Amino acid sequence: MGKFVNNITEFNKYCEENEVEFIDFRFTDIKGAWHHISYRASAVDEGMLNAGIPFDGSSIENWQPINKSDMILKADIETAFMDPFTADSTVILICDVYDIYKNDLYERCPRSIAKKTLKYMEESGVGDDAYFGPENEFFIFDDVKIWSGINQTGYRVESEEGEWSADTTYEYGNMGHRPGTKGGYFPTMPTDTMVDLRAEMMLLLEEVGLTVMLGHHEVAQAQGEIGIKFGNMIEAADNVQKYKYVVKMVAHLNGKSATFMPKPLYGDNGNGMHVHQSIWKEGKNVFYEEGSYANLSQTALQYLGGVFRHSGAVASFTNPSTNSYKRLVPGFEAPSILTYSSQ
């Protein structure tokens, strides 16, 4: 699939062909959540796209202080795609965040951090491109309840696939087809109840520009996965945001709730996001060396060493919550030690 436009001229034509009414500018905060602001298409011209969109950075958690709240969103025109969910024709543009006080990419914007990382990689001579292939897993629940009070706190999720629903009375009958704990890997219908839901997600993911390869039920009850093609660091990161948006919205519009939470079910497998990584230089994978251990080059081993050395800092982003670590226990197809191997 890939991009729909390459420059502002093509973008204007794309908007005209799709009778665009709104332009939606999106950016990612330090915690990975997408934010947006919508402009009437008639209010957006080439000058605005080049100069950027002002917004209040102090209202984004853990960003700017109120006395330095003014920030700029600069749209990456090549990221344009039509929002498949809005009632009125809306084109989405993914943006970089600029710090007007330093006249530079904002240091707390994940997209900015990624761009600076790629620049550093090139300047250091290590490589001229980096490819990432995330594998996103998710749960889809029929009902979600969360409560917290002075004397109690808790949550409860429901799924027709859950073994806890074995004695539930349904209007249309309880058919008893359930994967059971850790029994959800690749069953067909009727045990896999999410075939049509995933198919809808896969078709819409292609519609917004992702290359979709596969979809299947995952190991846990109510868990699924959709496989998309890898991309360079920025493209792959943007695709994860689009992926999450589509999965959550399709679930929502079908009266369900999708979550990428690491471990929503106690005693069953959790959600991971395995990320395939490689650095390339002059068209060659610098991580590959035939005949060495697992065909890993010295550069690849040094890369792994860097991840291990900075594991604490990395974990603050890859494992930001207590729930993150509830997934990393023996017996649930998740790592419990920091290591590498050929398997």
Tell me what the structure shows.
The longest helix has 21 residues, at 233-253. This protein is globular. The protein has 343 residues and is α+β, with helices and mostly antiparallel strands. It is built from eight helices and 16 strands. It has helices at 8-17, 46-51, 110-124, 195-207, 233-253, 298-309, 311-318, 322-326; strands spanning 22-28, 34-40, 53-56, 70-75, 81-82, 90-99, 104-105, 129-141, 143-148, 153-158, 212-217, 223-228, 231-232, 257-259, 273-281, 284-285.
Write the layout of secondary structure elements.
Blueprint: H1 8-17, E1 22-28, E2 34-40, H2 46-51, E3 53-56, E4 70-75, E5 81-82, E6 90-99, E7 104-105, H3 110-124, E8 129-141, E9 143-148, E10 153-158, H4 195-207, E11 212-217, E12 223-228, E13 231-232, H5 233-253, E14 257-259, E15 273-281, E16 284-285, H6 298-309, H7 311-318, H8 322-326
Parallel strand pairs: 1-6
Antiparallel strand pairs: 1-2, 3-4, 4-6, 5-6, 6-7, 8-12, 8-13, 8-14, 8-15, 9-10, 11-12, 15-16
Helix pairs in contact: 3-5, 4-5
In short:
The chain is of the alpha+beta class and 343 residues long. 26% of the residues lie in helices and 27% in strands. The chain has helices at 8-17, 46-51, 110-124, 195-207, 233-253, 298-309, 311-318, 322-326, and strands at 22-28, 34-40, 53-56, 70-75, 81-82, 90-99, 104-105, 129-141, 143-148, 153-158, 212-217, 223-228, 231-232, 257-259, 273-281, 284-285.
Largest β-sheet summary: 7 strands, mixed
Percentage of residues in helical conformation: 25-40%
Q: How far do the termini sit from each other?
A: 31 Å
Structural category is alpha+beta
Q: Secondary-structure element sequence?
A: HEEHEEEEEHEEEHEEEHEEEHHH
Q: Rg, please?
A: 22 Å
**How many helices?**
8
Strand-residue proportion: 25-35%
How does the overall form come out from the CA principal axes? globular
**Average pLDDT for all residues:** 95
How many β-strands, per DSSP?
A: 16
Spans where pLDDT lies below 50 across 5 or more residues:
none
